[in-house]
Specification:
The protein is 17% helix and 30% strand. With 769 residues, the protein is α+β, with helices and mostly antiparallel strands. It is found in: Membrane.
């Protein structure tokens, strides 16, 4: 049997030999040596064979990259550069030096440190070495104190091993060596995983999701690229768990590399060597294998997919992803087609100027934008689907397939074209004779968070559902609450009870009962009826009906199973950082709807955690419109008595000035700080009196660069400190004393979601509590 053959076992052992048993030659670099970034200078240290070089490679005029590259081929292909955040290119005159005391440091032309090698182990550096394997090493008496092989960037080469907790980071673009979106990780748990990060969160390196995994948790030990050209994942016994490439390519005859490219695919390339004057053809890099097989299948829940927003991904003849714009759209940056597309015509017009006659639909086949659905209709015709999308200002396109119509929302994400998808995509465009101007960048994001509930009314079978409120007899509500026994919450002049309405399926409801029949309460009741009956949005609590019988005034709402944000945020089971961010997004979207998308603009006037309820999925739902103030068309401000809750009330209330939607912006700013810090806006019992008023403390932490203090017991938030900083900056803008300095909720929502930059906020006055 083959398994008993000593020769067979010998071959297996050779195949699985770790790379460090291979004989290696190197060039020794003495202490005190240095290289300077300059044209036409000796700016590299070569390995003995000349296959590899370490030094400065000019990328653009006057700009250089510290790198290791293949030096015996015309392309000078780079395999390593130091892990510097942001732009990695350095100016002419920059220097890499191995100092007499063993420090290996990169400095700019002015001598400022840009990067240095973090040494491990004991002993002093005696010299550096450039090996023929492509590994650059700092050597002590007993061990290697630093190796480029242990700090890979986007590439590995034969004899290189990726151990647990190591990764490759794709570059931003083919000729841009800054960090890109894609990661390849040999995780600490043994799983080999591809991740995609999001451009949405500015500089936050937020991992969205895995788009490929080896599924080898507790098994994988190391990812190996051996001398024979095999690339595989092995366990701690050397057994192969997953083979990336099974075709042997001798490193004697070929240069080889595996690179996580900027499009998110790990590809294995080979390049023929010249041996004894004989040149093998072709003299270029040819691909041997790649993973994953279809990068266009990425589906990000918080990002754009393989290509940018409003674009779609398809495979070309070269098996590389191709990013394209649908009709009526063009690239944000023609030189960076993965950034996405913008509309070439005016917005779809959800501000009252939308006219279906101004638009037409262009057809394309086999396309989809998964996870951007906002409405789905079954059993309809294509003509119905067309007309519905044309008349719906929120619909940039619809997909019709097998009597099913799916409408998509802005921004379009995860777009792909594939012959296997089928169906017909109907893309809305303005007609040639209609208004045709490019929208500002923020407009593309305005409609990014639309409500399914508002559009569901378009479905023929539900055309009249939910358009009017039900009037309940008092006796029915009394029975539904078991004579008002189970109290959910209490306000100044109302109490909320849990109830069950016998509508055939025993619906749970929340019933708000006004306790005092005074003039103010009557006005409050009428205000809430007027306000909520005109609204319908996924981030607002839905009013189901009311009772106006004799002295009884009650409101019937859908029941929110997770109660108020106040009880959730300030209780023992606090929401995670991700959940708190989602609650901030949802509350902001609800306020955008009230301020800008209703038939009449509504100022809520009492935004606070007690009035933000949470449904089964912890979606934020704004409630309690008892203090709401409606503005007539064209009206922007109103004069009214002081409303709201202490600690959340904008300063203009106390100055008897006209109030605008900016009072809600102020209250949201305080709420946002509470969401960030998981604490109330005022806590009198704190030992440090400087921390009692949350807004003042948050501003001090921001100014002093100590934002970690706000979330110091929240590891998830600390890992996402850039977003914490952005949220704090937004909150500071929201609580400005001058309402004209506060942004609109639309702009707040865009800043929260990373669609627009957040400028440095001004100082804030002391906050009244």
């Amino acid at each position: 049997m083959a398994s008993s053959s000593p020769y067979f076992l010998y071959l297996i052992l050779i195949f699985l030999l770790p790379v460090y048993v291979v004989a290696q030659t190197y060039q020794k670099i003495e202490l005190g040596s240095s290289l300077t970034a300059a044209l036409n200078m000796n700016s590299s240290w070569r390995s003995p064979s000349g296959d590899f070089a370490f030094g400065f490679q000019q990328i653009r005029a006057g700009e250089f990259l510290l790198a290791i590259w293949f030096d015996n081929i015309p392309e000078k292909t780079i395999i390593w550069s130091p892990p510097i955040d942001g732009e990695k290119l350095v100016e002419e005159g920059s220097k890499i030096q191995l100092s007499e005391d063993g420090q290996f440091r990169l400095t700019d032309a002015r001598g400022e440190k840009l990067w240095d090698a973090q040494l491990t182990g004991s002993g002093n550096v005696l010299y550096a070495a450039m090996f023929d394997t492509g590994n650059f090493v700092l050597v002590s008496q007993d061990s290697n104190l630093w190796e480029s092989f242990n700090q890979p960037t986007d590439t590995i080469v034969p004899t290189q091993i990726m151990k647990r907790d190591s990764k490759l980071v794709a570059r931003y673009a083919e000729k841009n060596y800054s960090r890109g979106r894609f990661r390849f990780l040999m995780q600490g748990d043994g799983n080999l995983v591809f991740y995609v990060t999001s451009f949405l969160w500015d500089t936050v390196d937020l991992i969205n999701r895995a788009y490929w995994a080896s599924n080898t948790v507790n098994q994988g030990y190391q990812f190996v690229f051996n001398q024979s050209g095999y690339i595989y994942l092995a366990d701690n016994n050397g057994s192969i768990l997953y083979s990336f490439t099974s075709k042997e390519t001798s490193s004697t005859n070929y240069y080889q590399r595996a690179i996580l490219e900027y499009d998110g695919v790990l590809r294995h390339y080979v390049y023929p060597k010249t041996t004894n004057g004989i040149t093998r053809n072709p003299m270029n890099w040819s691909m041997q294998g790649s993973e994953p097989s279809n990068i266009c299948d990425i589906k990000e829940t918080q990002g754009s997919g393989a290509c940018g927003y409003n674009s779609y991904c398809s495979f070309g003849d070269d098996q590389r992803p191709k990013c394209s714009c649908p009709p009526g759209y063009s690239f944000f940056d023609p030189d960076d087609k993965m950034r996405g597309c913008k509309q070439d015509f005016d917005t779809l017009g959800c501000n009252g100027n939308h006219d279906a006659d101004d638009f037409e639909l262009r057809e394309m086949a086999n396309m989809d934008w998964p996870q951007t659905d906002y409405a789905y209709f079954k059993g309809v015709t294509e003509d119905w689907c067309r007309q519905t999308c044309l008349t719906d200002c929120f619909c940039p396109l619809a997909v019709f397939k097998d009597d099913e119509c799916t409408m998509k929302k802005f921004p379009l994400s995860n777009g792909r074209m594939d012959p296997g998808l089928g169906g017909k995509t109907l893309i809305k465009m303005r007609k040639d004779n209609s208004k045709n101007k490019s929208p500002d960048k923020a407009t593309l994001w305005l409609v990014s968070r639309l409500s399914y509930w508002k559009r569901r009314m378009l479905q023929p079978s539900r055309a009249n559902q939910g358009t009017s409120l039900r009037s309940f007899p008092f006796k029915e509500l009394e029975e539904a609450t078991n004579k008002f026994k189970e109290e959910l919450g209490k306000g100044a002049c109302s109490t909320v009870y849990r109830g069950v309405l016998d509508t055939g399926n025993k619906n749970m409801v929340a019933i708000k009962k006004l306790d005092k029949m005074m003039t103010e309460s009557e006005l409050e009741f009428q205000a809430e009826i007027r306000a909520i009956s005109k609204t319908n949005h996924k981030n607002l609590v839905q009013l189901l009906g009311f009772c106006n019988e004799g002295q009884h005034r009650l409101l019937v709402y859908e029941y929110m199973s997770n109660g108020s944000l106040a009880s959730y945020l300030f209780g023992n089971l606090r929401p995670s950082w991700y959940q708190r961010a989602q609650i901030a997004f949802g509350t902001a979207r609800g306020l955008v709807y009230l301020h800008e998308e209703c038939s009449n603009q509504i100022i809520h006037c009492d935004i606070k955690p007690q009035n933000i309820l949470l449904d089964d999925s912890l979606t934020a739902r704004i409630s309690d419109f008892g203090l709401a103030k409606l503005l007539k068309t064209g009206q922007t401000r109103t004069v009214t008595a002081i409303r709201g809750t202490k600690g959340y009330v904008a300063p203009e209330w106390f100055k008897n000035k006209p109030v605008t939607i900016k009072v809600d912006v102020y209250s949201f700013g305080i709420l946002l700080l509470e969401l960030i810090c998981c604490r109330r806006s005022f806590e009198q019992d704190l030992e440090d009196e400087n921390q009692m008023i949350l807004a003042d403390w948050a501003y001090d932490c921001y100014e002093e660069g100590r934002l970690y203090l706000l979330v110091q017991e929240d590891e998830e938030a600390i890992q996402d400190i850039k977003r914490v900083e952005r949220f704090v900056m937004i909150a500071i803008w929201c609580i400005q004393d001058d309402p004209f300095l506060r942004p609109t909720m639309k702009r707040v929502s865009q800043m929260l979601e990373g669609a627009v930059e957040v400028p440095r906020p001004p100082s804030i006055p002391s906050v009244n509590v």
